[in-house]
Amino acid sequence: LKMASDSPESLMTLCTDYCLRNLEGTLCYLLDNETLRLHPDIFLPSEICDKLVNEYVELVKTDSIFEPHESFFTLFSDPRSTRLARIHLREHIVQDQDLEAIRKQDLIELYLTNCEKLTAKSLQTLVSFSHTLISLSLFGCCNIFYEEENPGGCEDDCLVNPTRQVLVKDFTFEGFSRLRFLNLGRLIEGVNVETLLRPLASLAALDLSGIQLNDVGFLTQWKDSLVSLVLYNMDLSEEHIQVIAQLRKLRHLDISRDHLSSYYKFKLTRRVLNLFVENLVNLTSLDISGHTMLENCTIPSMEEKMGQTSIEPAKSSIAPFRGLKRPLQFLGLFETSLCRLTHIPAYKVSGDKNEEQVLNAIEAYTEHRPEITSRAINLLFDIARIERCSQLLRALQLVITALKCHKDDKNIQVTGSAALFYLTNSEYRMEQSVKLRRQVIQVVLNGMESYQEVTVQRNCCLTLCNFSIPEELEFQYRRVNELLLNILNQSRQDESIQRIAVHLCNALVCQVDNDHKEAVGKMGFVMTMLKLIQKKLADKTCDQVMEFSWSALWNITDETPDNCEMFLNYSGMKLFLECLKEFPEKQELHRNMLGLLGNVAEVKELRPQLMTSQFISVFSNLLESKADGIEVSYNACGVLSHIMFDGPEAWGICEPHREEVVKRMWAAIQSWDINSRRNINYRSFEPILRLLPQGISPVSQHWATWALYNLVSVYPDKYCPLLIKEGGIPLLKNMIKMASARQETKEMARKVIEHCSNFKEENMDTSR
C-alpha cells in the first residue's frame, strides 16, 4: 500500500515552487535591475495567485536558501492581471507597504498571524477590502493599532524626541458589511473591543484569545448568528457565563486556558457545565482545557469503571454531559483531570491520557498556542521514548508542522527536535517515506540554523544520525555541511555536540563524489578538522573527536588533490608527527593518519613535500608496525610506493638510503597475511593501477599487486567487478610480460586474474 504521505506533489505545487524560485525566468522581468515586474501578457486567476502568495510566505519562513523579494507583493497590485482572494500572511515577512501594494484586490479571506511589523497604516489598508472581506484574522498583530507620532516639528527636534507610538482609538469595522469570521487574538490592551465590533451586523465566528474583558454583554447582539466563540485565556466570571449561555446558536465554544500563565479566580463547576449543556443545544465542540474543577463533576468511581469504554452521553463519566443529545465532535480536556476518565462523550478528545489525546492536542493548538503545544509535544516525546508510537505518520507530520510554524519558539524547538529523534529511529524507518524523511531533515536543519542553544543543537545532530549518510542528506548537502562546520568552529563547545558533529562530518565526506568533497573543502572543512586536532593535542587527549577528525581528513582527501594540498599548507604534517609522538599506542589514530597520507602521496605534485629525512624515516619505521592488523604497515608502504614510483632521481635525501627503504618495504609486504580482513574501502583502483605499468620501482609494483590480490580474495563480490570495470586485467597481463617485474609479483598477478576469471564464470547469467 502506498502511504498517503508518499504521494508525489501536485503539478500545481511543483509549478508554484519552481516559479517562486525562478521569478525572473518565468513570470517576471527586472526593471532597472532591482524591481520585479510581471510580464505584460500574463493574467493569473485567484487560484494561482493565492497559491503563489501563500507558498511564498511559507518559503520565506521555512527555507533559508530562498531569497525574499522586496517588491514581491507589487506583482499583485493590479487586479486586471492578478487576482487575489484568500491569503495567509505571517510574522515579519509582511510589512505595511506589502498590504498597501495589494489594496485594490477584492480579498475574501485575509489571515494576518503574528505580523508584528504591521502598524495602523495597515488598518487603513484593511478598509480597502471592507466591501468584500468575509474572513479576517489579526491574531498577534500587536502593533497594528499603533501609529507613529512625531511630537516635534523639525528634524533637530526629532533627534531629541524620537518617534513615539500612539494607540489608535477611532478605528472601527464600519463598512465591513460582509465580515462574518473575525480573529482578534492577543489584541493590544487599550483598544475598546465593543466599539470596534459594534458595526458588524451578523458575526458568525469570533476569537478573542488572550484579551481581558470584564463585560462581554455586547456579544448578545450576535446571539442569532454567532456559531463559534473563542475566549482562550480570558479570566471568566459568573457574568461571562450568563452571557455565553444566551448565545444559543453556538456550535463551537472555547473557554480553555493555559494554567501556567497566570492566576485565575474562576473555577469551572458542575452547574456551569449543566448550564452550557441545557442552553447551547447545538454545541458540537467544547474546549475547557486547563481549568480546575471546583466541585466533583464526575460520577462515582465504581460506576465509572464499569462496562466497555463508551462515547454515548448516557454513560458519560462527566455527569453534566449526560444531558447532551449526541456525542461532541471535539472536547478539549488538556491538562484537566477529566481527560483520564473512562467514558468521555466525544469523538475526539484532547488530553494527556494517551497517544490519541496528545496528538489531538498538538493538532488543535499548534497554530495559535505554542505554549500549550510544546507541553503536548513533550508528552509525545515520553510516549515515543518509553512506549511504541502507534500513529507514527500522524505524529511525525504534527511535529514537523509545529516546528515549521514556530521556528523561533525555543520551547517547541527543544521538545520537537527531541521527539523527532525518537520518531525517526530505526524501528520506525520502514513506515516512513522518502518525502516525509526529507521534511524531517528540513525542519532539523531549520532548528540548527535558528538556534545556537546547546539542547536544540544536540537534538538536531542526534536526529541526523538516524538517517543514512550521506545518501539521505545529499539533497541538502552544502547546507548541512555549513551548519556542522559552524558548530565545530564555535569557540566554546559542548563535548557531546562536538563528538556527534565530527562523526556526521566524517560520514558526509565518506563515499561521495569528488565534486562534493572539493566543495566542502572550500568551505573550510580541512582547516576546521586540523583546528580540532590541534586543540585535542594541546589537551593531550586522544578521544573520538581526535580519531574522527583524522578519519574525516582521510575521507575528504581521497582522490581530491586540492584538499590534500590544503592539508599540507595548513601544517598537517607537523600535526601528524606531533600526534605520532604524543600517542604512540593509538592504533586507530595511526591507521587514519596513514590512510590520509596515502591520499597525499597519490598526488605527484605534492610528493616532493614528503621527501624529507624525517618523514621518510617515520614512514619506514611504521612499516614494522603491527597496529590495527596490517593497516598501518600497509598504508605506510602505500605512501612509500608512490614516492618510489618517482624514481631514484627524485630521492633528494642522503638518509635513509633508497635501497635500504626498498628492502624494508619488501620485508613488510612478505610479512602480511594475504587473507587479512581489511578496514579500508576503495571506491576506485586507479591510484593502485597506475603503479603496475612501470619498471622503475618493482617494489611499488609488488605492493599494488598484493593490494589487488588481497582485496579480490577476501571481498570478491565487491572488488572483482571493480577491477574488471577499471581495466585492471589487461594491465596485470602486460606486467607479467615485463622483464623488470619480480617473479613473485608475476605469480601474484596470475592469481588475481584467475580469481576474477572464476568470479565472472560463477556469476554469468545462464538463464534462457
TrEMBL record:
Pfam families in UniProt: LRR_Zer-1, ZER1-like_2nd
Superkingdom, taxonomy of origin: Eukaryota
Alphabetic keyword roster: Acetylation, Leucine-rich repeat, Repeat, Ubl conjugation pathway
InterPro entries named in the record: ARM-like (IPR011989), ARM-type_fold (IPR016024), Armadillo (IPR000225), LRR_dom_sf (IPR032675), LRR_Zer-1 (IPR056845), ZER1-like_C (IPR055142), Zyg-11_UBL_adapter (IPR051341)
One cellular component term from this protein's GO annotations in UniProt: Cul2-RING ubiquitin ligase complex
Ranges of residues in domain Zer-1-like leucine-rich repeats region: 195-336
Keyword Hydrolase: no
Every Protein zer-1 homolog-like C-terminal domain range: 403-757
Subunit structure: Interacts with the ELOC-ELOB/Elongin BC complex. Part of an E3 ubiquitin ligase complex including ZER1, CUL2 and Elongin BC.
Sequence similarity: Belongs to the zyg-11 family.
The protein, known as: Protein zer-1 homolog
Species for this entry: Erpornis zantholeuca
Record lineage: Eukaryota, Metazoa, Chordata, Craniata, Vertebrata
Name of the coding gene: Zer1
